[in-house]
UniProtKB/TrEMBL annotation, chain A:
HAMAP family for the chain: UPF0237 (MF_01054)
Source taxon at top rank: Bacteria
Recorded family membership: Belongs to the UPF0237 family.
Organism: Anaerocolumna cellulosilytica
Listed SUPFAM superfamilies: ACT-like
Pfam families, per database record: ACT_6 (PF13740)
NCBIfam families in alphabetical order: PRK00194.1 (NF001220)
Name of the protein described by the UniProt record: UPF0237 protein acsn021_27760
InterPro entries to which the protein is assigned, alphabetical: ACT-like_dom_sf (IPR045865), ACT_dom (IPR002912), UPF0237/GcvR_regulator (IPR050990), UPF0237_ACT (IPR022986)
Length: 90, 454
């Protein structure tokens, strides 16, 4: 099972998590883990999700998340987890 | 379990430090296209390329999207055309028709460059090789995406000085044919010694005859990431400096390995090699010369530059070989002038000369790359520069290359614009003393004594 990592970076405001989570729930994407920090004054959130049940393909999912990001003034990215595993693990 | 710091680090490398996979190159063998009928040959070449590579660009884009890492170029390399065309092409004009076919095929599948309009003549030239070499100026002037290379020497065979002499003339002719575009033709022509069969980088890429039917080779990049990492160890000793480059090179290469495996799986084409290289672009913050500055040199070209480059090259390889089991190609730091903002600045400041660049090529992978010289440079002088660089490769058992651009109508100090990834460059001075009698001797320089490792 390939997991997807969603990152949200930007100025903090009310409702970011709600907005993202609502979208994921509506599209049958299951959230496995969430962590969040404030780095250099920026809101940083990372979600590990299981997107195997979603009817959408990866391209649609990533594009729609990007759009939500634009609406609320943050950058949202979706990436397969392999890039992080490969880069940081032997 | 992935942690947030690692995710932030990776994404920072991609977004702010220009980490990218520089190229996915699909190598395609055209040996099975050989035919005595030229039209038939062209048809077969077009069909093979457009069939094998039809999903290359879309697959590259999908991988880019899914992992969030940019893949800058998707390219194709083919079997050296002097071999493929030997039975059908009787004149240089016949070869130009193949160049046009390659260009068409490249446009159809959407790749920006196709390499392999090449001849391998390290020991001698066949009629076919000669015809191809003579066709290069016109082929490069009348096509947009075709890249050409000629291998004129190797450690095992020595240097074919007839070819070196001829190429001095061909380079000038290629410059002349494209003079209204700042002699752009020469930016698509590389002269090699010890050319590798599996190099994914243009303009020198071709699909060597030792390769299989099709293969995926990936070139990684990331000078910006290395520079950023070195900022955190400013003033530290060489041990720390090396360790930092090594770890960073490891991470960069792993990304390349991931992309290569994924592309290979999806296209159902075997994975060939990862080329461990730091390839700059004209973008600010994506420069090999800036790494030297971060190491403590005022400009690339200052005393210490050769040592800095030797260290950088070695550490990139040490970090990279652990990250991928199949490493090949050119592997090392690229030091083109026009494609690297820091190098351009160094030339303009007067810190970097052709002679220093030549010294630097003794310790790095490539050679004299993307260097603009005055358009009135003689063919013999260009051949002399090529001969010097080939000798470095031959004696040191490494690949070296020359990509010089004599810019017709321009003088020392004038700026030449190539556009896009090829960048821009100030015209550099060339030693004006003659080597004509030396070049005119013709014949071969014998292989050096270390070719007898049997």
């Amino acid at each position: 099972m390939k997991k997807t990592i969603i990152t949200v970076v930007g100025k903090d405001s009310v409702g970011i998590i709600a907005k993202v989570c609502t979208y994921l729930a509506e599209n049958q994407v299951n959230i496995l883990d969430i962590s969040q920090t404030i780095v250099q004054g920026y809101f940083n959130m990372m979600m590990i999700v299981d997107a195997n049940e979603t009817p959408k393909n990866f391209e649609e999912l990533a594009t729609e998340l990007e759009k939500i990001g634009e609406e609320i003034g943050v950058i949202i990215k979706a990436q397969h987890e392999d890039i992080f595993n490969k880069m940081h693990r032997l | 379990m992935i942690n947030i710091q690692e995710v932030i680090e990776t994404n920072k490398m991609i977004e702010q430090e220009n980490l990218d996979v520089r190229t996915i190159t699909l190598g395609i063998s055209l040996l099975d296209c050989a035919d005595t009928n030229l039209d038939e040959l062209n048809k077969k070449i077009y069909n093979k390329i457009t069939t094998v590579a039809k999903d290359l660009v879309s697959t590259g884009k999908a991988i880019e999207r899914e992992y969030g890492v940019p893949i800058v170029n998707k390219r194709i390399s083919v079997t050296p055309i002097a071999l493929v065309g030997a039975s059908a092409c009787k004149t240089p004009e016949d070869y130009v028709t193949i160049a046009k076919t390659l260009d068409e095929a490249a446009k159809t599948v959407g790749v920006n460059f196709i390499g392999g309009y090449s001849a391998l003549v390290s020991k001698g030239m066949t009629t076919s090789d000669l015809n191809l070499i003579h066709s290069i100026p016109e082929a490069l002037a009348t096509t947009e995406r075709v890249c050409s290379s000629v291998n004129v020497g190797s450690t095992k065979t020595g240097i074919d000085m007839d070819a070196v002499k001829l190429l001095g003339e061909i380079i000038l002719k290629a410059a002349e044919y494209t003079k209204e575009r700042d002699s752009l033709g020469c930016a698509k022509l590389v002269v090699f010694c010890n050319a590798p069969d599996d190099n994914p980088f243009m303009a020198g890429a071709f699909h060597g005859i030792t390769e299989g039917d099709a293969i995926i080779n990936v070139g990684v990049s990331g000078p910006g990431v290395v520079k950023k990492a070195l900022e955190s160890v400013r003033g530290a000793d060489f041990g720390t400096l090396c360790e930092t480059i090594k770890t960073t090179a490891f991470k960069i290469t792993r990304v390349g390995q991931l992309v290569a495996q994924e592309a290979s799986r999806r296209l159902n084409v075997p994975f060939g090699i990862i080329d461990l290289s730091l390839a700059p672009t004209p973008a600010v913050g994506d420069s090999v010369a800036e790494i030297f500055q971060e190491m403590g040199l005022e400009h690339a070209g200052a005393p210490g530059t050769t040592a800095a480059l030797a260290l950088l090259n070695d550490q990139v390889k040490k970090g990279g070989v652990m990250a991928s089991s199949y490493v090949g190609g050119l592997s090392g730091a690229f030091i083109p002038v026009s494609e690297d903002q820091g190098m351009i600045n160094a030339v303009q400041a007067g810190a970097l000369t052709l002679e220093k660049l030549e010294a630097m090529t003794c310790v790095c992978s490539v050679g004299l790359d993307m260097i603009a010289i005055p358009g009135d440079t003689s063919a013999a002088t260009i051949s002399g520069i090529i001969a010097d660089e080939m000798a470095i490769g031959m004696i040191n058992q490494k690949t070296t290359a020359v990509r010089l651009i004599p810019v017709i109508g321009k003088k020392i100090g004038e700026i030449v614009e190539f556009g896009g990834l090829l960048g821009y460059a100030p015209v550099m001075p060339v030693n004006s003393f003659s080597c004509e009698a030396f070049i005119n001797r013709g014949g071969r320089i014998p292989a050096p004594i270390h070719s007898f490792k049997n």
